[in-house]
User: Which sequence fits this backbone?
């Protein structure tokens, strides 16, 4: 099974290299080939090849939400100096 995973990685790498150095048609065929490789991985490995990308996509989506909503934690906030309020009844 490790040999099959290495073969899939090599095929995707070769197809990606060809798509990077070629035209628009080659880039579209790269996407089609990756989809067909994923379908064949589901056939070869079974359910883990189907659920694995879904779990990774959920993790990536959650990380994106955390990054988008935690922008205030990364931006330094300047706190103004404490000022004494001027109350008219405090004069003694």
Assistant:
């Amino acid at each position: 099974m490790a040999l099959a995973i290495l073969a899939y990685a090599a095929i995707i790498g070769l197809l990606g290299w060809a798509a990077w150095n070629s035209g628009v048609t080659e880039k579209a065929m790269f996407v089609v080939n990756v989809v067909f490789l994923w379908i064949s991985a589901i056939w070869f490995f079974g359910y883990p090849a189907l659920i694995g990308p879904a779990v990774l996509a959920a993790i990536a989506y959650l990380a994106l939400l955390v990054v988008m909503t935690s922008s205030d934690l990364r931006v330094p906030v300047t706190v103004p100096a404490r000022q004494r309020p001027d109350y008219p009844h405090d004069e003694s």
User: Anything to note?
Assistant: Helices lie at 2-20, 24-45, 47-69, 71-74. DSSP finds four helices and no strands in the chain. The chain has a mean pLDDT of 81.
